[in-house]
Amino acid sequence: MKTIDPSLIAAQNDKLARHVHHDYEHLGEQLARRNIDIETVRARVAAFGVAIPSWGVGTGGTRFARFPGQGEPRHVFDKLQDCAVIQQLGRATPTVSLHIPWDRCSDWSELRQAAEAGGLAFDAMNSNTFSDQPGQPLSYKFGSLTHVDAAVREQAVAHNLECIAIGRKLGSKALTVWIGDGSNFPGQQHFRRAFDRYLDSTRQIYAGLPGDWRMFLEHKICEPAFYATVIQDWGSSFLAASALGPQAQCLVDLGHHAPNVNIELIVARLIAAGKLAGFHFNDSKYGDDDLDAGSVSPYRLFLVFNELIAAEHEQATGFDPAYMLDQSHNVTDPIESLISSAAQVQRTCAQALLVDRAALDAAQHANDALTATGLLQKAFQTDVTPLLQRVRLDAGGAIDPIATYRASGYRQRVAEERPAVKGGSGGIV
Ligand SMILES: [Mn+2]
Fold it and tell me: Which Gene Ontology molecular function entries are recorded, alphabetically (predicted)?
């Protein structure tokens, strides 16, 4: 696998290593004054990982257009190579989440070996019954798992079971199910019957789940169904996951909520119920914008992580969230966006680890709102950059991964091998 020459990473790091050690030491002193052991935080941050979605390494788009970049990956092996580069430099993304049928290949054991060679493993499998594929007998235009026609539902169930079968060959342990099913007109769909059909279909998928797998149900408020979506919010997702059984949990994509919804509160509710599957991280200003994680509302991301770290701290039952980035890179090099977004998520995890939990607990009991909120802000306002740099350096990554990536000329190199693709319509990925 043609990734980046380690000697280039070492040469780039040499220029900065002295500063990193100095800054890290200084941060350690600052944290020690707050009774925080930087080494404990560092070990926890070093163990943090967020999965890369295979489709994320291609340039995204909107429903108006897609403007491809140079050296777009041609197939799943190219995608894995790009993911390996992201992990090589950033060291926060040890796993890849595949999407079937986009990542279909003829030899899954070869793919597994390629992943291992690139230092990667496979995270959750993602099924696709929201678009039609070439040669597919029945259309999903009017739904898939909830379609009124039983034959379409059967086809969609069979596809999900195939995703599980492929995932077993790759060492995956979860299936993520997101459907676009719903309606665009009032009256078009019988709400309760559509939900019943969803339960009936997902029960068949659930029955095919290996004992050590989980099934992640992903909700989304709207799009492509713009009037009503079958699994539109965490409530519907929770009802379905509860009906299915303990292996079914609710996945929170940060962009799949109405504006101003208190997502951290939803996260707390799902943790309390033992039903939090994990996250698709991204950011937004208006809707499901699929912007880079933490690029618009870093404090909101922090408040989500505050709930996660609190649950970890309090050893909440059944708490084992899976983390993935799910964003669309329309104007940036996807590799750069994914490296920086993973670092942003990692940074937020580190900041949430700095919250003084005992002091917060005391402030809450004393009804001291100002102190309580100040404790969160103090953690959020701490610059943990030296800690992240040190974690990357120790793991063999790049202190400044974006600068190293640009210095490597990787994109230009792969552009020579990978023919340019045309732009055009149909950009949503
Ligand atoms: Mn998602």
Answer: isomerase activity
